[in-house]
Amino acid sequence: MRKQLLFGIALLSLNVFSQEHFSGINISKRGGLLNASINPAELTNMSRKFDINVFNMSLNLSNNKIGFSDLTDGTDLEKKIFSGSEPTSARLDVLIQGPSFAMKHKKWGFALWTASNIKANAIDVDVNFGNAVTNSFLGTADINSGYNQRMNAASWSEINLSAARDIIEIGNHKLSAGATLKLLFPASYMNMGVNHLQGQLTTEPISGDIYLDNATASMNFSYSGSLANSYEDSSNYSELFAGGLNGYGIDFGFNYQLKEKVQESTDGGDYTVDGYKLNAGLSFRNMGSMTFKDNNNHSSNYALNIPDAVGIGGLNLSDFEGTESIVDIEQTLIDKGYLTKETSSGPFKVKLPAVINAYVDYKIYNKWSVSAYMQQKISDDSQNDFTTIQNTVTLTPRFGGKNYELYLPLSSNEVSGFTTGFGFRLGGFFLGSGSIVTAALNDSKQADIYMGFRFGI
Predict the structure, then answer these.
(1) Measured between alpha carbons, how far is 246 from 187 in angstroms, rounded to an integer?
(2) Are 243 and 294 in contact (CB under 8 A)?
(3) What pLDDT was estimated at residue 271?
(4) C-alpha distance from residue 53 to each of 101, 179, 427 (Å)
(5) How far is Cα 186 from Cα 352, in angstroms, rounded to an integer?
(6) What span, in angstroms and rounded, lies between the C-alpha atoms of 53 and 23?
(7) pLDDT digits 0-9 by tens, 303-319
(8) Which residue from 226, 304, 353, 354 puts its CA 20 to 30 A from 20's CA?
(9) Picking from 222-231, 264-273, 408-417, which range would have the lowest pLDDT averaged per residue?
């Protein structure tokens, strides 16, 4: 258990974690598939007839305890990550967008695009419990957590079909709507939830062993695919289409543009429009679920009950030293008689991280513009049957023309707080980070990087 918990938290030593993906470039004036990934209605705003995505990748990591300076000044990370009184959270989020194609025809836009997702999270871990599991605890302490502590990981892939249409176009005003149907291919999943844990931790003074007794909680153990075998083996995240088609989701959204200039056709035909003064959108994304059906599928809810020991006793947390997976943790607790099964199932559903996205991009003057972006999760992702996502607000000043852009995203998210990044686009290639400036100038608790290449015809 110590290795499992430390892996989930110590992912931050990789210096990579999450706010929104493609921060700053995701509402670029260039338009196309990247914009349509946050709002399918953007497909009608493509600057070219065809948009072809070759490869995009975004890798994000955030936590609420350890900063960059802690990685270089010799700080004991095991103690630092569970310092203070606030529960510890850390989140890893990887998005890969593969070969994809979009086209615009008159008032319509269509797209076929692919994506793969990898998520690994430690959510609201009680600091006393975390210190005890990592052997960084002395004395006694009471645990009375009123929330669900989770270790959670998931991987899946998508094949997405999108369509959008201009529904109103009057003068320099245009309103469009769009939707995306997601075909989901769940690969692997792991969840260990410890809800409303109450108990007492005690250190045995001679051996140094740490015991948990007089403890109760509701626990969930769910796993499917390769993540049942090991949470820390990176190869277990790579089989992204392993589960076959076993889920569906939908995105839909609306987009409004105030066109900057209207040029009447000299031959009496339709007018043409050059650029916009204001671009605003609202979308609802990731509404759906996927079913995991691997041969090793397992999902059980338990009542945890560790009796009050006479003197020092109860569950010795060193018993988890040799565990390699949550399967081992579950079996250890069953063998010791501390778990009572309440419900169990084979195939199980996991909900997508549903969010609302709202944004506005405003042209200030000439090649200068500024955009604001909000990502707000719709559901409580502390539940055991949810994958996770973060609430984020981003303000991005931007300087750019048709074939280039420079931008500076200023963001705040619920785990790592405020960050500042930098990115650029040159033709179809882009590279950026939502936190690189903060990381270089301040003690940032987040790092991320993204890059990609696409081209229009």
Answers:
(1) 10
(2) yes
(3) 45
(4) 6, 19, 13
(5) 11
(6) 18
(7) 999 998 877 889 998 88
(8) 226
(9) 264-273
Residue 158 structure tokens: 């998508």
User: Under a CB-based contact definition with an 8 Å cutoff, are residues 199 and 281 in contact?
Assistant: no
- What is the DSSP pairing of strand 348-351 with strand 298-306? unpaired
Angle at the Cα of 110 from the Cα atoms of 108 and 113, rounded to 5 degrees? 165
Residue 216, pLDDT above cutoff 80: yes
Tell me which residue of 422, 374, 395, 430 sits closest to 30, measured CA to CA: 430
Q: What is the DSSP string of 139-194?
A: SEEEEE--SEEEEEEEEEEEEEEEEEEEEEEETTEEEEEEEEEEEEEEEEEEEEEE
Q: How far is 204 from 281, CA to CA, in rounded Å?
A: 59
Q: Could you give the 3-state DSSP secondary structure of residue 264?
A: coil
132: nearest Cα among 313, 304, 5, 312: 5
Phi and psi of 156, rounded to 5°? -160, 165
How many residues in total does the chain contain? 457
Pick from 50, 62, 61, 53: which is nearest to 25 by CA? 53
Determine the Cα–Cα distance for residues 38 and 33; give it in Å rounded to an integer: 9
Is residue 355 within 8 A of residue 299, CB to CB? The reply is no
Mean pLDDT, residues 43-65 taken together: 90
How far is 50 from 200, CA to CA, in rounded Å? 62
- pLDDT of 281 reads 97
Q: What is the DSSP letter of 198?
A: E
**Which tokens go with 109?**
């836009």
Rounded distance between C-alpha atoms, residue 278 and residue 176, angstroms: 14
**DSSP assignment letter at 265:** -
Region 115-127: what's the mean pLDDT? 88
Record the pTM.
0.83
| Element containing residue 96 per DSSP (H, E) | strand 88-97
Of 413, 388, 399, 333, residue with least CA distance to 366: 399
N- to C-terminal Cα distance for the chain?
53
Mean pLDDT of 113-119: 91
Q: For residue 73, report the phi and psi dihedrals to the nearest 5 degrees.
A: -105, 15
Element (H, E) at 335: helix 326-335
Q: Calculate ∠ Cα 108-452-454, nearest 5°.
A: 40
Evaluate if residue 406 carries a pLDDT over 90. Answer: yes
